[in-house]
């Protein structure tokens, strides 16, 4: 039956980790995958996660199936974290929230919803974007195109290009926006730019679909990082938001996240939720409980919640410190006086270095520094002790 199947290519991001594992050099550095590491470059389980898990054991939580829409306490907590604890849309019952399989699964559920209930529309993705966005929408049978986002000349946002492409998109298109800490560029619109983007999306009757994978990780503050989404909700938009707890709670493998649909009326929110449940039932029946309980325990316990905010600020702060050290080390070695400030102005886990594919190959082949081909490095995989080594590799690669 399957004789004609050909080999699929490796994933461009996860393939980098596989190549890193196979490298036997003691100099090697994995700056490919976006996963937080400690200053010793070790995986990190948050203290608040350990505390929540201890409480869960003590309380003898069972392993019964969750309802299709997920754990009620989690759904309440996740929408409050996103929109604020006394958000009017939530109080009015206008938000349909479904616990789903982390950011990826929530995006995929949203894509399935669009395919069924908003057919024939095109989804517009930023260029560049997180590579999996394209797979997710394509596999759901939703056509995608791109809008301009990055300007290589300024290593900044191509705001005019972005606005022109959103303007040129057919009325009623779906616009995917990274809520904060844009992956891979680390460049976000300013509050003033967000406001102009909202004006334009409103004028064009587009549907915003926010991807919030780094709430708390960009600025270190949950509220600040949700400002873009909150602006749109305050202005009365109908919209979708996918949330992930992979990065901000370090729950990568627990697959915990949510899809939120903000609707004009409570009646419509009830109907949309019923349809999302129907889609989820056929896709995976019901979501896993462990990560949902962790989030519910962390948010539901004031002391643990405060401690989480501190741990998040600690993670964001370590990455900011590493960025600063890397810039210092680059300046020490750079005889051409280049401007490295983009490394400290870009936010979140990543820096988009502008290294070309041949230079990336030099980084990996000669220096054993693993990164994605688009020139993205994950600062979460670096520490101060290795910043000088990375600077050597970058200067050598830029100069050759
Ligand atoms: N969206 C963006 C922009 C991401 O960078 C990621 C993870 O790197 C995700 C979504 C989804 O991750 P997960 O499925 O682990 O929540
Ligand atoms: O580094 C990134 O951009 C992500 C990381 O199931 C990732 O792609 C890895 C595995 C996964 C989801 C995200």
Features:
400 residues, alpha/beta, Aspartate Aminotransferase, domain 1, Aspartate Aminotransferase, domain 2, 2 domains, 7-stranded mixed beta sheet, two-stranded parallel sheet, 13 strands, globular, binds pyridoxal-5'-phosphate, binds (2S)-2-hydroxy-3-(4-hydroxyphenyl)propanoic acid, PyrdxlP-dep_Trfase, pyridoxal phosphate binding
Largest beta sheet: what is the strand line-up?
A: 2-10-9-8-7-3-4
The number of domains: 2
Stated plainly, the CATH topology of the largest domain is called Aspartate Aminotransferase, domain 2
The DSSP helix count reads 16
The ordered H/E elements are HEHHHEHEHEEEHEHEHHEEHHHHEHEEH
Mean pLDDT across all residues, rounded? 96
User: Could you give a short account of the major beta sheet?
Assistant: 7 strands, mixed
Beta-strand content estimate? 5-15%
SSE blueprint:
Layout: H1 14-22, E1 29-30, H2 47-58, H3 72-83, H4 88-91, E2 95-101, H5 102-117, E3 123-127, H6 132-139, E4 144-148, E5 150-151, E6 156-157, H7 159-168, E7 174-178, H8 191-203, E8 207-212, H9 222-225, H10 227-234, E9 239-244, E10 256-262, H11 266-283, H12 290-300, H13 302-333, H14 342-345, E11 350-352, H15 357-365, E12 369-370, E13 376-378, H16 384-399
Parallel strand pairs: 1-12, 3-4, 3-7, 7-8, 8-9
Antiparallel strand pairs: 2-10, 5-6, 9-10, 11-13
Helix pairs in contact: 2-12, 2-13, 3-12, 5-6, 5-11, 7-8, 8-10, 12-13, 13-16, 15-16
This protein binds pyridoxal-5'-phosphate and (2S)-2-hydroxy-3-(4-hydroxyphenyl)propanoic acid (TYF).
